Amino acid sequence: MDTRPKKTVRFVNFHPRTPSPASVTRHNDYPSWSAINAAPPSPHSYPAFSAAPAEDAMVDPLLDVLPPPALPPLLWDISIHPDNIRLGSAHSPASTRLAHSDLARCAARTSVKNARLPVRKIVLIFPGIPLEVEVTPAADAYWSSRPLPYVTVGDLLYGLYKALRTSVAQAEYEHLDPDLRESLRISFHSRLNRDPQHHVQNLEHGVRRIDYLGERRRFLGIRPASGRELPPSRRSEEVYVVELGRGA
Question: Do residues 224 and 239 make contact, with C-beta atoms less than 8 angstroms apart?
């Protein structure tokens, strides 16, 4: 019988506040583009939204879920800052990085009376996980010189990353199913082991929402949620499923 002490999880000593929609993509939370790349890459050319029937909701090609074995449009482990995203199937000979114009693209459009309207709020859900991420347009995003009246690709990517870094409160953890608590505990310690350089910092922050995802951290894209996937009180045109694969 194994009598060794079992590793436990750690929580921050305050009840973390889930980011509000307006705070999901605040400019001040991200480094300036010039600090990353002095000369932004050239814009790329992608398929138009009109590729789908007019009655269907549609996501930007950069966020679209492609059938396997196709390479995803974006290569991204969502536990890593979005500044590190590389273009996968969407890359061009000129660049493998996202340009300002890419980040400013409309993330999704919904159909109203056969007209495609940009989405102003997106609720991201994860199959089998009690987690929602709400994203709205940023007021001062660095990828645009003016506020944009829709959720952009940049809003979604940066908002998703920030929301998943939110610490899990002990009360939330204790209300979870025992199997999910155990999964979260294992994921937490796995994350600590993957990043020894920031071990102390990660330990202080305790369990984060990214730990819900376990090893499924490879971003494959988003898709409109089906009727049976809709959370209560959410409208179908605003809910999208985040598709993930196992990290490389």
Answer: yes
- What pLDDT, in 10s, does the model give residues 73-124? 999 999 999 999 999 987 777 778 999 999 999 999 987 666 778 999 999 9
Type of residue numbered 89: S
Measured distance CA(11)–CA(4) in Å, rounded: 22
Half-sphere exposure of 215 (CA within 13 A, CB side): 5
Please state whether the peptide bond connecting residue 69 to the residue before it is cis, i.e. omega within 30 degrees of 0: yes
- Residue 6 pLDDT: 57
CA distance 134 to 121: 7
Place of tokens 């002490």: 5
| Among 141, 147, 148, CA closest to 98 | 141
pTM of the model: 0.79
- C-alpha dihedral sign at 24, 27, 215, 204: negative
Order of strands, sheet of 115-118, starting from the edge strand that comes earlier in the sequence: 58-59, 108-112, 115-118
Number of neighbours of residue 1 by Cβ within 10 angstroms? 2
